[in-house]
Amino acid sequence: MFQSSREDLYHIPTQAKGPEGKLPLTPEMLRTWASGDLFGLTQSVGMGWEPSRVLGRHVLMLSTLGGVRDDDGVPIALGYHTGHREIGLLLRAAAQEFRRLGAVPHAAYVSDPCDGRSQGTAGMFDSLPYRNDAAMVMRRLIRSLPTRKAVMGVATCDKGLPATMLALASLRELPGILVPGGVTLPAEDGEDAGKVQTIGARYAHGEISLEYASEVACKACATPGGGCQFLGTAATAQVVAEALGMALPHSALIPSGQPIWSELAVHSARALLRNLQQGIGVQDVLTNQSLHNAMVLHAAFGGSTNLLLHIPAIAHAAKLKVPSVSDWQDINRSVPRLVSVLPNGPIPHPTVRAFLAGGVPEVMLHLRKLGLLNTDALTVTGYTLDEVLNWWADSDRRYRVRKRLLEADGVNPDDVILRPEAARERGLTSTVTFPTGNLAPDGAVIKSTAIDRSVLDADSVYRHTGPAKVYTTERDAIAAIKAGDIAPGDVLVLIGRGPSGTGMEETYQLTSALKHLSFGKQVALVTDARFSGVSTGACIGHVGPEALAGGPIGRLQSGDLIQIVIDCKNLTGSVDFVGNKEHRLTPAEGREILLARPAAKGLAPDPDLPDDTRLWAALQSVSGGAWAGAVYDVDRIIEVIEAGKQALARQTADS
């Protein structure tokens, strides 16, 4: 096993001279500093830092870096996704700037999974729970560097970016800044990373050839870094981070690997040190006012419904008011959608075009005119949002990126980020509706703006009544789609896939197939699972209570008639069981029948559900569940545990 011709393997030293020089210690430091703080200096010079510079301001850089790159950029080991690929370059640029300015940067990594890679597999059962785990590890790393004076987060994708935001939100008086890792570019001749995930379903239906599938699957991720090219969870989280004021203006959706991208890390390093000098902590930036702005930008962009899980979690971490469903409803009713971008359209522009059209600050200019923003909110620039937008309106950066979009792609920036009147004329409706009904007494979520307009009535209402096809596993549901068992007019119902069953898996494998199959817009989907940010169509998720918690959706049977009504203008809706082909019921009658029925056959937690996710499901459930952001409310968890211990003690005494 250990055969080798190298003689130098056994020239093993037993001592070393150690770093040259002396630590700049003082009598006061030796008398008052903790031993860990002193030994930390020893560790720093032991790793090669100059002793004379070791007392600079310590800054921690946390990132979701993954994979191993050679010096020339060639991969030696792959990360999980393109978002891992290049952010080490951002860290390098930021660290060099920190060092130039006399700070002492430290770097630690908490990598993240890829939701695209785990779609349709048991790996998806760890997706949402991972967010809390990663945020916890990041917070532990922050606390484990006691000398840190400020924290920079660098992240890109679906779970790592929200986790980093949760960790930064907990900093309170410490300065913190987020550097979005950017987006990958679309292929010049090919499909985007969302559509390409449907090649299996389209091939099974004979809609594409093997040769075509092989070619487009090869080129969809056209550049090696950044998040996907559509406004999914990763891109929406970048938008939200900037809207919260946690990231520099015009940083969301920046194309990975480009000079303007790496320069962002340099400016972010400067901004973080300036916040440290001025005493600006995260609690000064992350406020109820900035939280409102983030929800407004989510609606204006038409963002991922996964942010309905992440924004409340950020609020909880920052000890702010957690937004309720009624708060989301109020904002979505008042905020127009202004961005025409993948996956919602109406024109499927990739996210890089949204960046070049002006990105978040450009959208904010329109929203400010409508009086929808809290413009006195402070940002990590050290200036208020109002001051930032005044700068943006007349900036050279704004002029040049918008000009570049017209020159490079022949696209008018105002056709990507629309004025409110133009958005109305083109039929852009508000983003999210929260339907209720006898199948969703605790509510549900649909990205109503993504319903194909051809299936809406003249009054912008989606009305669909069809027979249920009920499945208890995503594997069986996608097999049914590929086999042709799902027909136009059907309502595909997937149950038992909420937090208790699968960790609230994403079901993009299903929603993407329905979007890109020729008949898919004639099919509705109802589930207690959640959707990928790139999902579109008449897809109702987050149904509560979930089936395994006794929700009525868990008592549906194939052949039951489901009635769905979604008003895309007034943002109201319902999803109801209304009988069967032979006998129609009112929603109230349907409710009574559902209450009397047993649970569907085969309804059970997935046999591959890991114990780690079972624990997550239990903890987030007693903390308020998905509607509260799937967080850990420690006080509530302890309260429930203590009540349980007392109940068990009484039970033992009685026996």
Describe this structure in words.
This protein is an alpha/beta fold and 655 residues long. It is built from 26 helices and 13 strands. The chain has helices spanning 27-32, 35-46, 82-85, 87-100, 115-118, 127-143, 160-169, 199-204, 210-219, 233-243, 259-278, 282-285, 288-301, 307-317, 325-334, 351-356, 359-369, 385-393, 396-409, 420-425, 474-483, 499-502, 508-516, 587-596, 611-622, 634-654, and strands at 58-63, 68-69, 75-77, 104-109, 148-155, 176-180, 443-445, 461-471, 491-494, 524-527, 539-544, 561-567, 572-577. The strands form three sheets. A seven-stranded mixed sheet has the order 7-11-10-9-8-12-13. Strands 4-1-5-6 form a four-stranded parallel sheet, with helices on both faces. The chain has a two-stranded antiparallel sheet with strand order 2-3. It is globular. The protein starts with 26 loop residues before the first helix and ends with a helix. Residues 1-24 are annotated as: Disordered. InterPro entries: Dehydratase_YjhG/YagF (IPR017798), Dihydro-acid_dehy_C (IPR042096), DiOHA_6PGluconate_deHydtase_CS (IPR020558), ILV_EDD_C (IPR056740), ILV_EDD_N (IPR000581), IlvD/EDD_N (IPR037237).
Could you give the topology of this structure?
Blueprint: H1 27-32, H2 35-46, E1 58-63, E2 68-69, E3 75-77, H3 82-85, H4 87-100, E4 104-109, H5 115-118, H6 127-143, E5 148-155, H7 160-169, E6 176-180, H8 199-204, H9 210-219, H10 233-243, H11 259-278, H12 282-285, H13 288-301, H14 307-317, H15 325-334, H16 351-356, H17 359-369, H18 385-393, H19 396-409, H20 420-425, E7 443-445, E8 461-471, H21 474-483, E9 491-494, H22 499-502, H23 508-516, E10 524-527, E11 539-544, E12 561-567, E13 572-577, H24 587-596, H25 611-622, H26 634-654
Parallel strand pairs: 1-4, 1-5, 5-6, 8-9, 9-10, 10-11
Antiparallel strand pairs: 2-3, 7-11, 8-12, 12-13
Helix pairs in contact: 4-11, 6-7, 7-14, 10-13, 17-18, 21-23
